[in-house]
Design goal:
The chain has 2 helices and 4 strands. By secondary structure, it is an alpha+beta fold. It has a 4-stranded antiparallel beta sheet with strand order 2-3-1-4, covered by helices on one side.
Length: 98
C-alpha cells in the first residue's frame, strides 16, 4: 500500500503583535484550529522567541496523494484567512517512500 506524506511550512509575520503573549494567542488559535478541523500534525517550527515572526508546519498522511494535497490546500487557505497574520511564503515537501 502506498504512503503519501506531505508537509507544508508557512512563514508568517504578525504585524500587530507587541509581545510573545500576543503572538502565542494567535499562533495557538491557528495550530489548534488546523489540528481540529483538518486532522493534521501542526507545530511552530521557527522564530519562537520573536514577537512578530513565526514559521508553522503542518503534515498530512494518506494512502492517496490527492487527499494529502487537498488537505494541505485547505490548511493553507485556513492560515491565509487570519487577518492577524501576513503570509510571507509557503513551501511544500513530499516524503519519498520506497
Amino acid at each position: 500500500m502506498p504512503i503519501h506524506v506531505l508537509a507544508l511550512s508557512v512563514d508568517l509575520r504578525l504585524v500587530d503583535s507587541h509581545s510573545l503573549k500576543d503572538k502565542r494567542s494567535v499562533i495557538r488559535t491557528i495550530l489548534e484550529g488546523a489540528k481540529r478541523r483538518f486532522v493534521v500534525a501542526a507545530a511552530e517550527t521557527d522564530h519562537q522567541d520573536e514577537w512578530q515572526r513565526s514559521e508553522l508546519a503542518f503534515c498530512a498522511v494518506s494512502s492517496s496523494a490527492g487527499i494529502v494535497t487537498k488537505v494541505l490546500d485547505d490548511v493553507e487557505r485556513f492560515v491565509w484567512s487570519f487577518p492577524e497574520v501576513e503570509v510571507l511564503s509557503t513551501e511544500r515537501h513530499w516524503l519519498e517512500t520506497d
